[in-house]
Amino acid sequence: MSTLDIIVTKEATEPCKETFKIEIPAEKTETEYKGIIKNFKKEVAIPGFRKGKAPNQLIQKRFAKEIADELKKILFQETITNIMKDESLKPVNYPEMDGVDKDIKAGEKYNFSITIELEPDFKLPEYKGLKVEEDEVIVTDQEVDKTLESFRATEKTYKTVERSAKEKDMLKLSYKGILEKNDDEDEELGVGTKYILELEENFQILDKPERIPGMIDILAGKKAGDELKDIKITFPDDYMEKTLRGKTATYSFTIHEVQESFIPEFTDDMAKKYGADNKEEFISRLKDNIKQQKQSLISEKSIKKLHDQLLEKLDFDLPPSFLQREIDRLKDEQKIAQDKKEKDSDDNDTKSDQKFLDKAEKEAKENLRSYYLLQRIAEKEKIEVKEEDLTRHFMSMAQRTGMPLPNIVEYMKESKKLNSIKTNLLLDKAMNKIYQYAEIKKAKTTETEEKK
Length: 452
Hints:
This protein is α+β, with helices and mostly antiparallel strands. It has helices at residues 26-43, 56-62, 64-87, 141-153, 194-197, 215-219, 268-273, 279-312, 320-341, 350-380, 387-401, 405-414, 418-437, 447-451; strands spanning 7-14, 17-24, 96-98, 110-117, 131-135, 157-160, 170-179, 198-205, 227-234, 248-262, 439-443.
């Protein structure tokens, strides 16, 4: 061993964590120190001396702290690099160093320790040929009819009728509501109250959810030309407009017109609007789409079953800092959800806190073991997230949110969520690979079972 070699001794080993005792020989600190002085001499400018001509002692005195910091930086980095290479370690974060606050001096040995948190080491279970049973996909006539009805509804029109109004009709009406105000009330009404308290000759569909509480019962059975006055309406405590909750208003209504909805039959011409040659072809495509949607849902359930099968076979230690971070995240989520559910409760006992902690710890371990499992499978299967995968994901987001695709891409980059998205897509692809390898047994599903 050379006198310049850094001495590394493995001191302690814990689950997902290793500690090393480090000794930097005196010759090593001296050699590196001289090299730093030489570099400083070339780079720094000192009044009265040409660059590179200032005496070493002056450089050492004027830049003592900077030189010492650079010496530590070089030695620490070399040490960490050598340990990672020699021990074939996979760290999960930057190593923790102990004993590095003390001064370092050229020509003297320097001792400290390094603790490295590591990825878990576990045997990858067999993930090919797992067995799972899933329902056979059956598309019923009722499902086709219900979906076809939604397409027919897009062609819905209204026509004026000379009869009494009933639910689902569209009324042309005017109304005005005057709130009862107590002397101690001085609350400003929200902007959303404008069309709730007053409407002038406009159309309103007599359907739920009701804009005005009880509106269907009040106006059903009335005809065009009818006027109603002095109708007292109290807004419920959970009403959509907060500033009206619990308040009472006196309304007057005038019905100007009653219109009935008309939904046409689905025809060949309507089918052509959706790219089909005729109604028969459209229905055939509709059945295929419904089948694909149902199969997608069934596949998701099967993937979850396969995932759970694999996790049952695993029980390995996890990096402590990662585990704690995930526990804290889940605990916060659970607490927020519980607070919303019990916002009026004063129950803050320690039993409840322990329940949150136990649940969070259990879920955190499952989440991290799942993450490392799928990462290992993706690595073994050489699965990658390609540009087209990201594009498909962003296009799907654009369709769901209505945001332009370039805006979504820009937002993801600026919010630094791109790496997280890539990781999730990688894990999804690994899970789909397990599904592709699975032995799937189809369970016969009768049409009667489908209707339940």
